Amino acid sequence: MPWIFWLNDSLTSTFGNRLAVNSRHGSLRQLAVKEVQARKDRGSDRKDILSKLFAAHDDKPESLSMNDVTSMATSNIFAGSDTTAISTRAIIYFLLKNPRCRNRFVQEIDDFRRQGKLSDPVKLSEADDMPYLQAVMYEALRLHPAAGMNLPRVVPESGATVCGLFVPAGTVVGVNPWVIHRQEEVFGDDVETFRPERWMGEDKGDLREFRHPDNCV
Length: 217
Description:
The strands form two sheets. A two-stranded antiparallel sheet has the order 1-4. Strands 2-3 form a two-stranded antiparallel ribbon. 7% of the residues are buried. The chain has a domain at 19-97. By secondary structure, it is mainly alpha-helical. The protein contains ten helices and four strands, in the order αααααααββββααα.
């Protein structure tokens, strides 16, 4: 209910932060407030996301307040680290819960290291060439996607037709990945099973269908 946030925001100066809905990030937001103000006080020629937010605020302060700038800075602090941590935990969790997969995963690492294909630390290009590692990551993120909410998009001016249904321009649409990732029509009857092999080999027509832009599943 977004209106609760704005109600709290407008009444805070009078009644205090009673609802505390803007304190959900706790210390991270306080860190962002401190760093944003410090950056604004000292100034900088550095071209980064914060400089762009400052420029947008200076250009249209009524559309992007300093509170908005701080909120976006806070999001950039926690979003990347939070989703990375969620994904890493999911990968480790499913490997520990599935000894067969864990053993095959460790075997691949040992084989690549024995062949001299892994640096210390491992390079991204080297990890990309490890088929079972990639399959494990895909499968863990399928079963436990880091984003657990709809990912909204706005229908363009021309409108859009999806599965025979016309969606008017300006409509906000979104799909929850937790639902999509459990479509039996796409992933099969074992949709709740951690099985990285589903992402390997050439015979994965169901996944190609899932990624096809004309798919209406």
